[in-house]
Amino acid sequence: MHENSHDNSHDDSHDDSHGNWRDDLNEFDCDGYRPLHHAILAHDLERARVLINAGALLNAPTESGDGALVLLCKALSDEDAVSWLKPLLDWGVELIDRDQKGWSALHHAVSRQMVCTVRELMAAGADPFLRANDGTRPVDICDRLVPSRQDLRELLIVKR
Fold first, then answer.
1. Which residues are 104's β-sheet partners?
2. pLDDT digits (tens, 9 = 90+) for 39-60
3. Which letter does DSSP use for residue 52 in this model?
4. pTM of the predicted protein model
């Protein structure tokens, strides 16, 4: 009887110490980021894979409203962002992810002149005519901010 009692108390303490560990996967830290966001900012794809497999929410935004794709296009280089796109899309990231101003990942990629990222986002189905809160479209950003970049403009023109 004592042995059963000991087993139950051991099980209870195990549950108490590890019962809610998955909740931490989706909690904000003091900087307004979740663990997955830190993996993106650190360009640590393997850590992101582990977090997603453990139950981290892929489409959960930062405290300021940036989803995974927007954060990727705001923070990483063109080359690094491209290396993340296929895994994120395969895992189910929302392509229409937007920040608080309504800018999509494509808006940010165009504004930062990330040609390879723009190419990949367009191939995945991103909309170059999607309007932000102020009405700005990725194609408008290209025309206004980077008019000399015909290569970007050509990527944004899709045959309908």
1. 98
2. 999 999 999 999 999 999 999 9
3. H
4. 0.82
